Amino acid sequence: MPMQLDLSAAAARSPAQPAALTVAVDAEPDAIDLDAPSIAIEFSAFNDGRGLSLAVLLREQYGYQGELHATGELIPDMIHYLRRCRFDRVTLPERFTAAEIEAASAPHKAYYQGSASDPEPAFRRTSRSA
Amino acid sequence: MYQYEAFDRQFVAERVAQYREQTRRYLDGQLSEDEFLQLRLRNGLYIQRLAPMLRVAVPYGTLSSTQLRTLARIAREYDRGYGHLSTRQNMQFNWPELEAVPDILDALAEVSMHAIQTSGNCIRNVTTDEFAGVAEDEHIDPRPYCELLRQWSTSHPEFDWLPRKFKIAVTGAAQDRAAVAVHDIGLRVYRDEQQEPVFDVLVGGGLGRTPVLGNTLRSALPVADLLTYVEAIMRVYNRYGRRDNKYKARIKILVRALGLDAFRDQVEAQWAKLRGNASTLTAAEVARVEAAFEPPAYEALEDATALLASQRLAETGFERFMRHNVQAHKRPGYAAVTLSTKATGVPPGDVSDRQMEWVADWADAFGFGEIRISHKQNFVLPDVRQDALFELWQRASHAGLGTPNARLLNDMICCPGGDYCSLANAKSIPVAEAIQTRFDDYERQYDLGPLQLNISGCMNACGHHHVGHIGILGVDKKGKEFYQISIGGSSANGASLGKIVGPSIERAEVVGVIETILDTYLATRQDGESFLDCYRRVGIEPFKEPLYADAA
Question: A59 CB near a chain B CB, below 8 Å?
Answer without folding.
Answer: no
